[in-house]
Amino acid sequence: MTIKDAMSCFTTGVTVVTAHTQGQDWGMTCNSFNTVSLDPAMVLWSVRKTSHSHEAFVKAGGYMVNVLGAQQKDLALKFAQGTHEERFAGHNVVRGINHHPRLDGVIAWFDCRVAHIVSAGDHDILIGEVVDFGVRTGHGLAYAQRSFGVLAALDE
Asked: For every residue of 37-77, which 3-state class applies, written as one string?
């Protein structure tokens, strides 16, 4: 057993974080997304320092968090590999306030400006102030123990 095996027991939601910088769209699947504050509205996610997307996300000045719905497993997998052009191919996007791409069909989205970047081990934590957001009905895509799923309410 490894530390990664133990951490995989914690169920998370699945997002695709996107940004537009350096003249192109960037996007990657992320399950390190979390709320920081409600007033002001702030969220965070972390990006591995050795990721080929690291510099783009750190220098973009902001990002869009796309919360995936239960039927979007294929989207999560697509944004986990390949070039950024391949990741966005065939997807309709809506541009946010700062031109970051919002993916079609997500159940929630948060358009953020970077407020702080905190170095932590082999990742940088990007804390963003939410400048715009949206939500629609649907169940979120969940991830635990290297498998996708959907959470169901427990019987009371």
From this structure: EECCEEEEEEEECCCCCHHHHHHCCEEEEEECECCCHHHHH
Q: Tell me the backbone φ, ψ of residue 24, rounded to 5 degrees.
A: -150, 165
CA distance 44 to 35: 6
For the stretch 28-49, pLDDT in tens is 999 999 999 999 999 999 999 9
Question: Tokens at residue 96, please?
Answer: 């946010």
Amino acid at 18: T
Whole-angstrom distance, CA of residue 19 vs CA of residue 3: 30
Alpha-helical segments (H) within the chain: 3-7, 54-59, 73-78, 84-88
- State the Cα–Cα distance between residues 15 and 108, nearest whole angstrom: 9
Percent of the chain with pLDDT over 90: 87
